[in-house]
Design goal:
With 397 residues, the protein is an alpha+beta fold. The protein has eleven helices and 14 strands. The chain folds into two domains: 12-266, 4-Layer Sandwich (L-amino peptidase D-ALA esterase/amidase), CATH 3.60.70; 274-393, ArgJ beta chain, C-terminal domain (Ubiquitin-like (UB roll)).
Amino acid sequence: MDNTTITAPAGFKAGAAACGIKQADRLDVGVLVADDVCSAAAVFTSNRFCGAPVIVGREHIRRGRLRALVVNSGCSNVATGKRGVADAQAMCRQVANSIGAKVGEVLPSSTGVIGRFLPMEKILPGIDAALGTLSSSAEAGERFAQAIMTTDLRMKQACERVRIGRTQITVAGCCKGSGMIAPNMATMLAFLTTDAGVPAAALKNLLRDAVEPTFNRVTVDECQSTSDTVAIMASGAAGDLNARQAASFSKALRAVCESLAYQIVRDGEGATKVLEVIVRGAESPRDAHVAARAVAVSPLVKTAVHGGDPNWGRIVQAIGATSVTYRPEKVTVRLGKDVLFTKGAPAPHLDLARLAEAMRQPHVTLTIDLGAGKATERVLTCDLSREYVAINADYTT
């Protein structure tokens, strides 16, 4: 099979194992190991109750060099105090000792239930088992992607290949995320690899530039995770990039992040459709973002989308609750190409049956023109269904 997984770029191997954190022998430990120490960068959650792996990861990434990642699912190691930090360090040490790396060259991540200690008596043997399966194959990449899942229904993977002169550069990644999605300078868990040679300082800037318009523009339930991490490793196996080639690499990196971010929203807990909210004509980029997010996070809008109800009143209510600059009589709201609201009133000659059909599509687009300037922003979300409540009501029981 064609390898479009996280092991597609040259210089990386992945492994996974089921150590018993999750039920029914589901994969719950993953490792990603580079052939050599790589340039690396990462961004993390700004949630002040961040997990122990985030605390350790911030320290380990400071030098901009990694050899490996180690991830477990089923338990997030959050709100676990000094023991949690020691457990995250122990996970790194287990990997480092096995592959001949320094402990600080391993980045840890955990995802799952908050407020419980890691079962280290299961995890450490699980890490060894995962390391025993290391491979650069597509199957190994898929197993890694499965091992990081919690309430996800689908694996989320993306890959871009770019030819620059005679050199082909590959950027690939996988992520997990379905609920507790409201990233702020990071996302759920996302891991990226490339065989391009990029210095750590440049890689950090490129990663932030890719994250901001993609992962940072999605929301499922507007609950910011305590474990959010996006990390990238660059093996350099395809050769170093020069300044001219950086633009092509940046485009490929953003495309991978864009695909993964969309897959997260599509797989939102209980989601049946994706809602894209576009705001145009804002006075500033900030105003555009605030207005788009206000509509995207509104439970009234999200439930209307779920029910196929083209209720423009809920849309203008969400905008009206913000402090952004606009005049109500200048605002226009569209569902797809159809105008719902304009000049301060419902649009004339509305075909409600046609609008309801548009709301029942798997991808619904709402476009709001504030008529106040030239700034534009987009936020992706999903509908809010009864299933979301059921999933989260029973999450730990």
